[in-house]
Design goal:
Elements lengths: L2 H12 L3 H8 L16 H11 L3 H4 L13 H21 L14 H26 L7
């Protein structure tokens, strides 16, 4: 897949045309289409990467990760382990909701909502930590 193909796919995800992207970034008409045959200049590549909030390595096809702070499979496994630990602590500590009910007494829908909320919170925290604590030399 060429750099142009990746940019075109990102444009489709954003529901804009390649021509619109060129206009928004101040590129000359058909300059992105030339990426089918030629390698893009680093400044244009960076502008496109910044626009889509992806890494330049992703645009060049060197990696499948759009951003350095995207969660990996290992991160997802860590989140599931942490979620399990939290749930065990709820049971052991006698967690009680505002109405005095324990986690085991919650109806199925409320329990699912609580679990989804906790899981999403863990994902957000992991992404923030990766953004904040990844050394610059490992960022794209």
């Amino acid at each position: 897949m060429t750099t142009f193909d990746i940019v075109k796919k990102l444009c489709e995800e954003q529901k804009i045309s390649v021509v619109e992207l060129e206009e928004k970034l101040g590129f000359s008409r058909n300059s992105l289409y030339s990426w089918k045959r030629n390698k893009p200049s680093s400044d244009k590549l960076e502008k496109v990467a910044d626009y889509f909030d992806v890494s330049t390595d992703y645009l060049l096809g060197r990696t499948d990760k759009k951003r350095y702070y995207d969660l990996t499979e290992k991160d997802e496994q860590d989140i599931q382990k942490e979620l399990e630990k939290i749930l065990n602590n709820f049971s052991d500590s006698g967690f009680a909701a505002a109405d005095g009910s324990s986690i085991d007494e919650l109806d199925e829908e409320d329990r699912e909502l609580l679990l989804a909320s906790l899981e999403q919170s863990l994902r957000i925290a992991k992404r923030i930590a990766k953004k904040k604590f990844t050394p610059k030399k490992y960022r794209d």
